[in-house]
From TrEMBL:
Family stated for the protein in its record: Belongs to the short-chain dehydrogenases/reductases (SDR) family.
Keyword Transmembrane helix: no
Annotated protein name in UniProt: Levodione reductase
CDD domains membership: SDR_c
Domain of life: Eukaryota
C-alpha cells in the first residue's frame, strides 16, 4: 500500500457495516488511525445464502467488528470503537472527544451513517409516504451529517495542521447519485442526499481559508445490506444493473472506499466543494 493517509486520524460514522466499514478498512490500509463509530460495533448478519470473502464486504460476512479487524491486520492501537448516535449532538460531541483522547487529534471526518427509512423495497409517492419516514431520513442522513461536520471541523480548528500535509483537515460526506438525480418512490431519501451535496459545498466555502477540504461522495448502487431489499427478484436486479453502464452495480464497496481515500489525501490538495460521482456512468445517461 502507498500509505497515502499515513499518520492521519480518521473519525468515521456508520463504520460497523456498509460503505463506512469499507472506508475504515481502506483508510487503515493506507496508514490512518481510525476511530470507528456506530450504534453498535457488530455488523448485521449476512443473508444465509450469501458468501463474500472480501474483508471490505458490506454485508455481514464476518462477525469481527471493524475496529477489531483493523487492529488484527495492522497492529494494536490503530483503531478504537465508540458508540455514536448521529442524531444526537451530545453523542457526536462525546465521540469526537473520545477520538482526541485516543489519538490526540482529528484530521479526517467521514460521515457515512445513513438509512433509507422507506425501506422494504416498496416505492411510495409523496402522498403515500409516512411523515415519520421523512423525519427519520432527515434526522440521520442530513442532520446527522451536519452535526458530525460541526463537531469534527470544530476540533480541526483547535489543533495545529498535521506536519507534512497540504491541508488542515479533510471532510468526506456520504451523499448518493440520488443527490444529483432523482428517483421516484424515495423522495425523502433524495431530499436528504441533495442536502448533503449542498451543505458540503457551503462548508467548503466556509472553511477554505483554513484549508479544510469538504467534499461529498455520490455512489451509485452498491450491493449491500442497505440495498438488498430493492432486489426482490432477478428482474429487479437486472433493472438496477442496467442503470450503471460500466458493468452494472458495484459488487465491492471498496471501489467507493478508494475514492474516499483520494478525497482525504494530498492527491486532492486543490479539490473542495465537489460532489464526486462514483457510479459506473449512472449520471452520464
Amino acid at each position: 500500500m502507498s500509505g497515502k493517509l499515513q499518520g492521519r486520524t480518521a473519525f468515521i460514522t456508520g463504520a460497523s457495516s456498509g460503505l463506512g466499514r469499507a472506508i475504515a478498512l481502506r483508510f487503515a490500509s493506507e496508514g490512518a488511525n481510525v476511530l470507528c463509530t456506530d450504534l453498535s460495533p457488530t455488523i448485521p448478519p449476512a443473508p444465509s445464502d450469501t458468501t463474500d470473502a472480501s474483508p471490505h464486504a458490506v454485508r455481514g460476512d464476518t462477525p469481527v467488528p471493524t475496529h477489531d479487524l483493523i487492529t488484527s491486520l495492522h497492529g494494536p492501537s490503530r483503531s478504537f470503537y465508540t458508540r455514536c448516535d448521529v442524531t444526537s449532538s451530545t453523542s457526536i460531541s462525546a465521540a469526537v472527544q473520545f477520538c482526541v483522547e485516543k489519538f490526540g487529534r482529528v484530521d479526517i471526518v467521514v460521515s457515512s451513517a445513513g438509512i433509507i427509512a422507506e425501506g422494504g423495497g416498496e416505492m411510495k409517492r409523496v402522498h403515500e409516504t409516512e411523515v415519520e419516514h421523512f423525519d427519520r431520513d432527515m434526522a440521520v442522513n442530513a442532520r446527522g451529517v451536519w452535526l458530525t461536520c460541526k463537531f469534527g471541523i470544530g476540533q480541526m480548528l483547535k489543533q495545529s495542521p498535521l506536519a507534512g500535509t497540504k491541508g488542515r483537515g479533510w471532510v468526506v460526506n456520504m451523499a448518493s447519485v440520488m443527490g444529483l438525480v432523482a428517483q421516484k418512490g424515495i423522495s425523502s431519501y433524495c431530499a436528504t442526499k441533495g442536502a448533503v451535496v449542498q451543505m458540503s459545498k457551503a462548508m467548503a466555502l466556509e472553511y477554505a481559508p483554513e484549508r479544510i477540504h469538504v467534499n461529498s461522495l455520490c455512489p451509485g448502487y452498491v450491493n449491500s445490506a442497505l440495498t438488498q431489499s430493492l432486489f426482490a427478484n432477478a428482474a429487479a436486479r437486472e433493472y438496477y444493473d442496467a442503470l450503471h453502464p460500466l458493468g452494472g452495480m458495484a459488487e465491492d464497496p471498496d471501489v467507493i472506499a478508494k475514492a474516499a481515500v483520494f478525497l482525504a489525501s494530498d492527491d486532492a490538495e486543490w479539490v473542495t466543494g465537489q460532489a464526486l460521482a462514483v457510479e459506473g456512468g449512472y449520471t452520464a445517461q
